[in-house]
Amino acid sequence: MDNRLKGTGVAMVTPFREDESIDFGALKKLTEHIVNGGVNFLVVMGTTGENPVLTEQEQTAVLDYVAEVSEKKLPIVFGIAGNNTQAVIDRIKKTDFTNIHAILSATPYYNKPTQKGLYIHYKNIAGASPVPVILYNVPGRTSVNLSAETTLKLAYDFENIIGVKEASGNFSQIMQILKNKPADFIVLSGDDNLTLPYIALGMQGVISVVANAYPKEFSDMVRAALKHDFTTAKKLHYKLLDFTDSLFMESNPAGVKAALEIMGITSKYVRLPLTSVSKETYTVINNLIKKI
Question: Does domain 2-228 have CATH number 3.20.20.70?
Fold first, then answer.
């Protein structure tokens, strides 16, 4: 299980039609594109999947459809998170885990809990989850940082907390986790543009946004880096760097959805409160795709 959740995971977008309904035809095309790109696992209903604006029924429908289209060839990590601990636990208890290999749970947003609160939050999630749990630290979105000390305590105290997606951008914090973690605890990058240096420090993979559009190139970069072939990895990293940065000029996943529309895979549409990228950003992304 642990080895299957290393390498490149893809934080899949949820394709919408112009009327904001889910476009399952485009989801099929996207899933096949990603799976054929040679990635290691899929992440459904992360923030890139716009999970806050999908109903639980829609989230389940997307999960089941991705599992069907991918023919369960790859493990699926499912996003279950929130800023109400009991509500997260209740959601876990009523979830059908047939197609779910692990859950990804971001730190609670807005409440700004203490480290003690974060520890107890994840302790309760670990106790409720029948599958492994991956922590997700993304202070830029949640306004709270899961410290290295708390991450390590959770890693050592709970057997089914198997890893962390680290998107703090704090190299010092990340190195403390990598230096002191249990041997089998997985540390994954949550920042596409920093994945190469993170792997050089000891990370075992990434949950990527860019790999929606370029699954082969990005997973080839990760594989090369994990084999310490940094000549190959750097070439692919710099090939995609400007494109990667362009996807985050405005809100995510509006950038990567624009790219996927340009590539003929899905549409650009997002659900409010997000909006599609500006014409200027769309043009930048289009030109970079032509260059690649």
Answer: yes
